[in-house]
Write a structure and sequence with these properties.
Elements lengths: L6 H12 L6 H13 L7 H99 L4 H18 L5 E4 L4 H5 L2 H11 L7 E2 L12 E4 L6 E4 L1 H11 L1 H8 L11 E10 L9 E10 L1
Organism: Rhodnius prolixus (Triatomid bug)
Family: Belongs to the V-ATPase E subunit family.
GO molecular function: proton-transporting ATPase activity, rotational mechanism
Length: 293
């Protein structure tokens, strides 16, 4: 305060400072009264300087208050924007999860249906293939019924029937057209039973009663005609097919075979993306492709 200022300079300073506190009516009246009370002769520099210091401090406090208020208003608006952003993001994530669940359900149902159709097509293909093989085998067996292999097979079936009945005096009934062929097998059959099984068998053919055309090739009865064994190449063939059906299918169609079926389905690949910020939720990306069955 060593430097003195003039009344005009002090008046300009007070008017300048008064512009910052015009919203305070009491302070403005005080300044105006100060101007009216003081004249140029009654001017006191120290009182005016204290007045200037007081007004300067008040202006500084008001400025700080305004900055604090502006900073709070800015933070509130920023928080509101963040809340709106997170709310919109949550809504998008919820919609995405719902769509993702729907896509997975549709994908699973389509995949199950296509796998079922592919499996059914494989089974039908295998069944048709087995039927073709069996039909071809039946034709070959029918064509070879008068050959030596067919006679040897029939002889083995007759031996199995006799062993099953366990009767030393069995009786055999045949069709009339097969009488001569099967009669020629009896001597060889008795020798095989005696050499291989040490069984003496007095097998005879019933020449009075013959089997009809719808029955099997032959029947071997016990001596009292209470039990019999029905022997036929067709029945034996069917039993072999039932017993070895799984092995036949494995030979024709291996389990690991892949048919060239025009079946495809949508494969959804979900890629998990790392969080960008600690507060952000996990993002996902959907990529579609083809999966061949």
């Amino acid at each position: 305060m060593g430097t003195k200022i003039t009344w005009e300079e002090m008046q300009d300073a007070l008017l300048y400072l008064m512009n910052f506190v015009v919203d305070d009516e009491e302070e403005e009246d005080d300044i105006i009264g100060y101007f009216n009370y003081r004249s140029v002769r009654a001017y006191k520099p120290r009182a005016a300087e204290r007045k200037i210091d007081m007004l300067s401090n008040k202006i500084k406090m008001m400025g700080d208050a305004r900055l604090v208020y502006q900073d709070m208003d800015y933070k509130n608006k920023l928080n509101e924007i963040r809340r709106e952003k997170y709310a919109a993001k949550d809504q998008v994530d919820l919609q995405f999860e719902r769509k993702l669940i729907a896509v997975y359900k549709r994908y699973t149902m389509d995949l199950i249906e296509m796998r079922r159709k592919a499996k059914l097509a494989l089974l039908n293909f295998r069944y048709r293939l087995v039927l073709e093989v069996l039909d071809e085998a039946k034709v070959k067996l029918h064509n070879a019924r008068k050959g030596e292999k067919s006679k040897a097979l029939m002889r083995k079936l007759m031996i199995s029937g006799i062993l099953a009945l366990r009767d030393p005096n069995p009786v055999m009934r045949v069709r009339s057209k097969n009488l001569e062929t099967l009669s020629g097998l009896i001597p060889v059959l008795k020798k095989e039973l005696l050499n291989l099984h040490q069984i003496e068998c007095n097998l005879r053919i019933d020449r009075e009663t013959f089997l009809n055309a719808n029955s099997s090739s032959l029947r071997i009865y016990t001596s009292d005609f209470k039990c019999f064994a029905e022997i036929s190449l067709a029945n034996h063939f069917d039993q072999c097919v039932k017993f070895y059906f799984r092995e036949i299918t494995r030979q024709l169609v291996p389990p690991d075979i892949k048919l060239d079926l025009d079946v495809h389905c949508l494969k959804v690949t979900i890629m998990k993306v790392r969080k960008a910020r600690p507060g952000d939720k996990t993002r996902y990306i959907i990529r579609a492709g083809k999966l061949y069955c």
